[in-house]
């Protein structure tokens, strides 16, 4: 009979604060206001492609967050990544409200750096590919700093140093690529369909694995 794997210490720390409303801090209200302001500026300019690209980025992140949280459910040891430390609300095992609000606006910030012409190259590389990799690499560097600060935790060898290319491509590359993809559609109905599909998938995953099955 096999021995059940033990939860890591940082997983226990995260589970202790998971969805605990008593952690609420009023600074979160300000953060929400600032995040909404970013979108309000783009709505005022009728820059709907940036708005929808930002929502696409956020939508892909939610899929990732649910998927990696399920790793904890099935391994009984650790999710792919785990967040600990002070937070106003720990939404999922690897996602707190502060990170979620950052990701809420990150896609808008990203697409505003894209050259108008997708055909333009940077250092001989198509600019969308170059900037997706550049932004993804920068995000992983931030994760490394958070890991050094002992508030962000990687557990598995295949999602850890020195295997950061995997994190760059699938940890963040998918987010930035989705934002660029929706932004470049320029066809409003297709953009709305893409973002609506992501929202439907997110809702289905969160409801199924949250309240119904209680796996995340």
Largest sheet: 2 strands, antiparallel
Averaged pLDDT: 96
Question: Which structural class do the helices and strands define?
Answer: mainly alpha
Strand order of the largest sheet: 1-6
* The number of domains: 1
Q: Give unreliable regions as ranges.
A: none
The end-to-end span amounts to 27 Å
How much strand content do the residues show?
5-15%
Number of beta strands = 6
What is the element string, with H for helices and E for strands?
HHHEEEHEEHEHH
**Tally of individual helices:** 7
Shape: globular
Please state the CA-atom Rg, rounded to the nearest Å.
18 Å
Assembly type of the shown chains?
single chain
Proportion of residues in helical segments: 55-70%
Q: Which short descriptors sum up this protein?
A:
216 residues; mainly alpha; two-stranded antiparallel ribbon; two-stranded antiparallel sheet; 7 helices; 6 strands; globular
Summarize the structure.
64% of the residues lie in helices and 7% in strands. By secondary structure, the protein is mostly helical.
Describe the structure.
This protein has 216 residues and is mostly helical. The protein has one domain. The chain has 7 helices and 6 strands. It has helices at residues 9-17, 27-44, 48-75, 97-111, 127-148, 164-185, 188-212; strands spanning 81-83, 90-92, 95-96, 121-122, 125-126, 152-154. It has a two-stranded antiparallel ribbon. Strand 4 and strand 5 form a beta hairpin. The mean pLDDT is 96.
Describe the secondary structure blueprint for this structure:
Blueprint (H helix, E strand, L loop, with lengths): L8 H9 L9 H18 L3 H28 L5 E3 L6 E3 L2 E2 H15 L9 E2 L2 E2 H22 L3 E3 L9 H22 L2 H25 L4
Antiparallel strand pairs: 1-6, 2-3, 4-5
